[in-house]
């Protein structure tokens, strides 16, 4: 009997569950929008119970379309940094506040002033940024002192879903790496940082071996009609699970395109760390290897913002309609893709938005400018990687953004790199499922987007304008 595996992907915009076979073929998918709810204390957020309800609804929906007796394991992936603190009885103390929520943890904790940024990077592989878990916890301690005192354990999004499915408080290394509390070289919670943050003993155990993951609770296995030995594992950070689905390794580079876009790859041997640090290239561990990662948090967010801007009569413009609008080339507009923040390769906060609009600016100009702005920032990232000795001629791309042909062509033209899109649509969820199976997928080519040599000069001139402006704003 062929076995099936479920992958749960808790993203910022959507929550998805898919069923895959051992070859990585996606057999069924269920999806829910991650709509935020207003909260008078915590702002727009997702109540913990609602988050779990969306997850279980999707699992049940998928189980209705496959042979339940074939399901052998469930893997969970999610956004990083954000999470849910629970008390000793397992009750959530706060709703889920997404990593990109404005104003969260915006102040650097006082105790981190004892470390230089380089010292923090040597421990954690991270350049300080407001979104990391350490800042959220410190803000909670300052603003919600009673809740902080009641907190028994802080669980990442994946950890919380695992806890609700199994009753166990556990985590996985790549998610621990995004807290700024984990020592990536010693492969354990950093005693000094957790002590200063008052988090000693309040973080889940990091599972080191696949066999240490728990099985689904008896109540849920009986309720869903699953075998009592179905194992539940945390597969890791969503972008890294996408890499798992495509079998990214060696000198391969993955461009994972979601609400936040990343470029990510793996290293068998660590290069000069200071060279990576100087360029804001982050490092961590996943699947027994070191990885590097550069992020563009405003990529998918820029597309969503633009859809909202162009919406009429309360109807949000559809993706297909948006792409059909994208027909203008060589628009004089410049777009700075920082409306949801900038990546850590940018040393200073930069303003986002359009420059050069006039009375003749059309919707098509706006769409093309956004695509070209994202492409320019991709070129900046790839240049920094090359300076640090990380080269890539072909880039594998996954995620919703790959369906935007205008954006993908702009990336190829402005970066002078070839992008290969994959037939795997649900890469993060599929990667989580394969991880639960102890398997690695492989890339399966859908489309190859190559640079257009006739566009090279126009792209070069616009990229020069883009870099001059961002350098001036960053001074």
What is the count of distinct domains? 2
* CATH class category of the largest domain: Alpha Beta
Number of helices: 16
Per CATH, the superfamily of the largest domain is: ATPase, nucleotide binding domain
Could you tell me the strand content as a percent range? 15-25%
Describe this structure in words.
This protein has helices spanning 48-63, 117-124, 133-143, 145-150, 157-166, 173-176, 191-196, 218-224, 238-246, 273-278, 299-309, 319-325, 363-387, 405-415, 427-437, 456-473; strands spanning 4-10, 14-20, 26-33, 71-78, 83-86, 153-156, 170-171, 182-183, 188-189, 205-206, 231-237, 253-257, 261-267, 282-286, 289-296, 334-336, 353-355, 394-399, 418-422, 445-449. By secondary structure, it is of the alpha/beta class. Helix 9 (238-246) crosses helix 15, helix 11 runs antiparallel to helix 13 (363-387) and helix 13 (363-387) packs across helix 14 (405-415). The protein is globular and about 60 Å long. 50% of the residues are buried. The mean pLDDT is 92.
């Amino acid at each position: 009997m062929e076995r099936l595996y479920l992958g749960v992907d808790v993203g910022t915009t959507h929550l998805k569950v898919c069923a895959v076979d051992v070859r990585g073929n996606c057999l069924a998918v269920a999806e829910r929008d991650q709509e935020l709810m207003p909260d008078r204390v915590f702002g727009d957020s997702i109540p913990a119970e609602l988050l779990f309800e969306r997850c279980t609804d999707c699992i049940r929906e998928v189980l209705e379309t496959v042979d339940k007796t074939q399901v052998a394991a469930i893997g969970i992936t999610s956004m990083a940094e954000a999470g849910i603190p629970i008390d000793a009885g397992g009750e959530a103390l706060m709703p889920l506040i997404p990593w990109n929520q404005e104003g969260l943890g915006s102040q650097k904790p006082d105790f981190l002033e004892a470390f230089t940024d380089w010292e923090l990077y040597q421990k954690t592989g991270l350049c300080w940024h407001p979104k990391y878990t350490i800042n959220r916890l410190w803000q909670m301690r300052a603003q919600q002192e009673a809740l902080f005192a009641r907190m028994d354990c802080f669980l990442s999004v994946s950890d919380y879903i695992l806890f609700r499915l199994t009753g166990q408080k556990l985590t996985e290394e790549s998610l621990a790496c995004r807290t700024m509390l984990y020592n990536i070289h010693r492969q354990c919670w950093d005693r000094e940082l957790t002590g200063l943050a008052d988090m000693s003993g309040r973080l889940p155990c990091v599972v080191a071996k696949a066999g240490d993951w728990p099985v689904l609770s008896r109540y849920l296995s009986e309720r869903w009609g699953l075998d009592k030995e179905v194992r539940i594992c945390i597969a890791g950070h969503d972008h890294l699970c996408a890499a798992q689905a495509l079998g990214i390794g060696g000198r391969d580079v993955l461009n994972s395109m979601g609400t936040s876009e990343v470029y990510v790859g793996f290293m068998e041997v660590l290069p000069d760390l200071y060279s990576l640090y100087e360029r804001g290239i982050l490092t961590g561990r996943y699947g027994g290897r070191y990885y590097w990662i550069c992020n563009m948090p405003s990529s998918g967010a820029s597309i969503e913002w633009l859809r909202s801007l162009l919406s009429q009569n309360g109807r949000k413009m559809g993706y297909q309609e948006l792409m059909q609008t994208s027909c203008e080339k060589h628009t004089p507009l410049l777009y700075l893709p920082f409306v949801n923040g900038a990546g850590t390769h940018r040393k200073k906060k930069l303003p986002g938005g359009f420059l050069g609009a006039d009375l003749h600016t059309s919707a098509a100009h706006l769409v093309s400018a956004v695509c070209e702005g994202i492409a320019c920032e991709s070129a900046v990232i790839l240049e920094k990687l090359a300076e640090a000795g990380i080269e890539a001629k072909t880039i594998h791309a996954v995620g919703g953004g790959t369906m935007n042909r205008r954006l993908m062509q702009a990336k190829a033209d402005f970066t002078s790199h070839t992008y290969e899109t994959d037939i795997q649509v649900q890469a993060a969820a599929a990667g989580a499922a394969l991880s639960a199976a102890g398997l690695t997928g492989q890339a399966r080519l859908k489309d190859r987007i190559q640079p257009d040599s006739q566009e090279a000069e126009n792209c070069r001139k616009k990229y020069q304008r883009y870099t001059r402006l961002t350098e001036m704003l960053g001074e």
